[in-house]
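Below is how a single chain appears once it has passed through the pipeline. First comes the sequence as given, then the structure the pipeline wrote out for it. We keep one example in the README because the format questions we get most often are answered faster by looking than by reading.
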Amino acid sequence: MKVPTMYWLPKLHKTPYKYRFISSSSHCSTTKLSILLTSTLGTIKNLIINCSNKAFENSGINYFWSVKNSLEVLDKLHAYIGDFESVQSFDFSTLYTTLPHILIKKKFTHLIKWAFKKSECEYICSNSFRSFFSSNKQKNYVNWTCFDTIYALEFLLDNIFVRFGDSVYRQVIGIPMGTNCAPLIADLFLYCYELQFMTKISKDPSKQHLIHKFNNTFRYLDDILALNNDDFSMYTKEIYPVELTLNKANTNNDHCPFLDLDIYIINGKLNTKIYDKRDDFSFPIVNYPFLDGDVPLSPSYGVYISQLVRFARVCNNVLDFNERNLCITEKLLHQGFRYHKLVKTFTKFYHRYKDIIRKYSSTCRLLIRSGISHPIFYGNILYKAQKCQYSPLKLTKPINRLIKKGYSYDTVVRSLKIAYFGVNIDSLIGSLHRH
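Resulting structure:
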């Protein structure tokens, strides 16, 4: 029998520093079972989403608060009609390790039975890659009945072991972070209580005014965003079991972070920009490719485009977009990226993703001038200078074109002085135009 080991990770974005324990479950005796359960519970979750969407269309009640990612949150925020009054974020402290097994078993038994009844199928056919409801057994799949699914989940919960040093422990409260199906179990467990609460207030005439407020609630695993709902904190103990502790994450109801979104309200209008908890670290973070190694150039500059797409989707203000662009390009320049290639890559991004960049009402040249950091010197100007070593004035027109495109005059002059060290180039510098 292979038992997962436990290791510790610091949470450096917290003040003071906190920590989380992870169970290294990638190669243990229950890994295959956990992978199959992940696939199976994912199919049940998709059924819940479809039914919840249909219920919202018919009744206007949002029974399913869980979201896949921040883009789904953005889409729902953009679709919201009305003024924005407040925004609050909450998170559960130690969600995974405090879930009572008896409650998980109770809620999932009811949920799984409901799913099989709703699907009108006898089996969920699963493998490591996909699963689906079926009325018949399928080859090359594990065919779960309702009883099999419930039994497999209970077996996994009853056989959670971790090794720490020379000792082996059985976890009797909570589920370990690190096992494959842990996020789905936590997500659907919380959904059961949220469904119960929304059903309760929809049937109580004295609380039906709360439906509209709680409809604008979004949850990603243990993080919750409540929009225009100052009453949310009053009902948390009524929604979730007492074993779970929910803490408010923001102090100002006009501003809060959620996932990679920094959300703030100004004059009733909601604005979003990028939030990265690593910005608060007191030490530099190693990320993005270093071009002084054997990393291919094309995929490396593709990383820059992917980040620009993310920035443009999230930031609805051009100043916020330029701020993130300046930050990433400064880092990329220090890691071997070339300024003129960054400009070329940005131009490609601008023309390829006009649908998300159009909202800034800004030209490509202006975004380049305001959003791309400048290096200590321009490598392409050094290269041009080497070709015109004995006739510097030939560089006047091409360099003026570069300055017009957004190159920094001071950095251009510095680059020329490096290229023509010990040579008098006052006539060349005097022929350059400031923009």
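The chain has a mean pLDDT of 88.

See the next section for the split statistics.
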